[in-house]
Amino acid sequence: MSATVIDGRAFAAKVREQVGEHVTRLKEAHGITPGLAVVLVGEDPASEVYVRSKGKMTLEVGMKSVEHKLSAQTGQQELLDLIDALNNDPEIHGILVQLPLPDHLDEDLVINSIAPAKDVDGFHVSNVGLLGTGQKSMVPCTPLGCLMMLRAHHGSLSGMNAVVIGRSNIVGKPMAQLLLGDSCTVTIAHSRTKDLPEVVRRADIVVAAVGRPEMVPGDWIKPGATVIDVGINRIERDGKKKLVGDADYDSCAAVAGAITPVPGGVGPMTIACLLANTVTACCRANGLEEPEGLTA
Ligand SMILES: NC(=O)C1=CN([C@@H]2O[C@H](COP(=O)(O)OP(=O)(O)OC[C@H]3O[C@@H](n4cnc5c(N)ncnc54)[C@H](OP(=O)(O)O)[C@@H]3O)[C@@H](O)[C@H]2O)C=CC1
Ligand SMILES: Nc1nc(=O)c2c([nH]1)NC[C@@H]1CN(c3ccc(C(=O)N[C@@H](CCC(=O)O)C(=O)O)cc3)C=[N+]21
């Protein structure tokens, strides 16, 4: 048996197409162009790749894209002032501050200074609380992308055993909330989890969000289970630079029912969901009907 490969790149292209149609409608019917501002502090080469790719795709779907690149030495107040200006800019509907921030900046304070309605990452405590209580919120892009692929593959997720490996605020915890919202029985595993292989073997759905190259081998996977690989790890093998996930792809694909590849799985969906959230935020800000199927 060999797993169905869930093509995140193709799925993301469809989501962007839907986003593009909504952008056109907003422009033609209401004269509104959704705008996304991305703030990058410091010069992390990997972050610059994502920021460039986000900017390019934002323009491709017809939205306005603004990038603010600040030096690594930027002071806290300077960053807060920029966020304040973006919060008050009527042409900006979504604000993303690329994480991680340099150590001298207070990440929680910075994120919580973004207006919740413009928090397209869904990291503000208000959005976290709304999601946790099942209320309308901004949903974090990576978990939202994973959920869309899972729903498309399975239809209903009700009653499935889901194991999320990783408990970060940006991936693991919101992923678990979304799976719970879709009536999965959810286990969150982390670095202190005992007998991780046994825990993972019970899962119908495994979401790996750890940041350890190929740490999940195929013999942890229940035959037929779905593996969603969030990990983005840059490694060097046989003298070549390579991008690998947190799952050992070949051995997992041999037993899984379905699997997302790296690259070409969760990553492209993250960016597509960022664009979707920006359109959603723009519609909400203007009291207009929200796009269907682009939120959780
Ligand atoms: N594709 C995409 O769009 C995105 C990909 N990523 C990638 O996903 C991965 C995870 O990101 P992020 O959540 O931010 O990472 P964090 O480093 O914030 O969290 C990693 C989590 O993994 C857990 N962990 C570490 N080692 C082990 C272990 N040996 N066994 C079990 N659990 C372990 C940690 O546990 P503990 O809490 O106990 O320390 C922690 O909860 C990274 O590779 C990142 O690059 C991230 C965002 C978007
Ligand atoms: N505030 C904030 N929000 C984020 O959503 C956020 C962040 N900070 N910091 C960093 C992580 C990481 N992340 C990725 C997005 C897209 C790809 C992606 O498109 N990856 C491609 C490959 C890209 C490549 O080749 O490097 C793929 O998987 O196919 C990966 C990783 C968003 N993050």
Automatic annotation (TrEMBL):
What InterPro entries does its record include? Answer: Aminoacid_DH-like_N_sf (IPR046346), NAD(P)-bd_dom_sf (IPR036291), THF_DH/CycHdrlase (IPR000672), THF_DH/CycHdrlase_cat_dom (IPR020630), THF_DH/CycHdrlase_CS (IPR020867), THF_DH/CycHdrlase_NAD-bd_dom (IPR020631)
The UniProt entry, under Gene3D superfamilies, shows: Leucine Dehydrogenase, chain A, domain 1, NAD(P)-binding Rossmann-like Domain
Biological process (GO) annotations held by this record are: L-histidine biosynthetic process; methionine biosynthetic process; purine nucleotide biosynthetic process; tetrahydrofolate interconversion
Superkingdom? Bacteria
Identify the residues that bind NADP(+): 166-168, 232
Instruction: Give the matching HAMAP family.
Output: THF_DHG_CYH
Name of the protein: Bifunctional protein FolD
Organism whose genome encodes this protein: Sulfitobacter brevis
